[in-house]
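Run log // design_07
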């Protein structure tokens, strides 16, 4: 098994990018694309949108490498950018959600509703339970569980106080547990 060992740390790769070297861009992308995508998909849920946001994050990074030349922990910086872009996307999406929801409810037949429920039943129950939470609560759960942010950090990102974040997280845990319990007992 050959494992590629590269002599290039993040700072060296950033320098290569600033110098216009394709290898720098390629190595940085390869090193961080999975981390960025995983952060985005947990918050955004939609795969196509997550892929688009991931690409936007890297395009933004590569368009202005000088903004990160003094960043010591590029992985942490990209994680923060991924979270912020995802939250911005969710906020924009929420503006139009009520209009879209009204149209979809009017257009869905009983067969379409049944098919949707059947598809959801095929997904793992915990993930399904998290996805069924409203956007704000789902975001809190994902940031706390998967991104290891504190309640205080989440509160700052979402414009909430940490006590509100804690209580919403606690209620979400109870909902998730009740949903799983109901499925297991069925």
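design_07 sequence
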């Amino acid at each position: 098994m050959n494992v590629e060992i590269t002599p290039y740390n993040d700072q060296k790769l950033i320098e290569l990018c600033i110098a216009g070297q394709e290898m720098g861009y390629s190595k940085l992308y390869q090193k961080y694309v999975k981390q960025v995508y995983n952060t985005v998909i947990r918050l955004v849920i939609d795969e196509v949108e997550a892929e688009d946001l991931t690409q936007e994050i890297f395009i933004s990074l590569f368009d202005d490498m000088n903004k990160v030349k003094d960043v010591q922990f590029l992985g942490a910086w990209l994680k923060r950018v991924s979270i912020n872009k995802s939250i911005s996307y969710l906020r924009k999406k929420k503006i139009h959600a009520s209009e879209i929801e009204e149209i979809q409810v009017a257009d869905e037949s009983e067969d379409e509703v049944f098919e949707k429920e059947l598809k959801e039943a095929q997904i793992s129950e915990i993930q399904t339970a998290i996805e069924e939470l409203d956007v704000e609560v789902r975001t809190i759960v994902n940031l706390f569980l998967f991104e290891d942010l504190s309640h205080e950090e989440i509160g700052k990102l979402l414009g909430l106080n940490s006590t509100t974040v804690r209580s919403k997280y606690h209620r979400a845990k109870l909902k998730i547990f009740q949903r799983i319990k109901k499925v297991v007992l069925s």
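The longest helix spans residues 74-107.
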